[in-house]
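debug: dumping io for the single-chain case to check the tokenizer round-trip. Nothing else runs in this session.
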Amino acid sequence: MHLMQYELTFILGETATAADAKAKVAELATFLKQHDGSITREEHWGRRELAYVIRRNRSGFYVTVWFTAPAPTLKPLDQHLRLDESIIRSLVTKAYTTAEEGSLRPEVEEKPTTRRSKAKADEEVETDEEPVEDEVLQSTIDDATKAETAE
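debug: decoded output
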């Protein structure tokens, strides 16, 4: 059978640990081996906050696995992932990047924690005013500016 390359990202519940993630990857490796597949690379992203609550979880332990397997393996793999109660979300896609390239872990941008720091961050962003294309609108703006400076 022809082997295809796939990428699997799954999220374990908020009570999961790094050891649980490694055990889940080992379980996945034995499943793939039974179906003539193999894991080529794994990447543990760690605990991250979820965008919304999933099955009463506010955070989850993210793991990405690159593997090779025949195409008919995907259906039983998907069923296996859905039946596993410790996995709250999973997604299998065809791998468009090779497993040897650098980390695909997204960089987390630091968010301001208070309203004042957010306002300060907004002030630091410089904005260039774009020229107004409408001549009537531009003349109205010019007249208003002249009136303000005359006062």
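debug: round-trip ok. Residues 53 and 60 are 10 Å apart (CA to CA).
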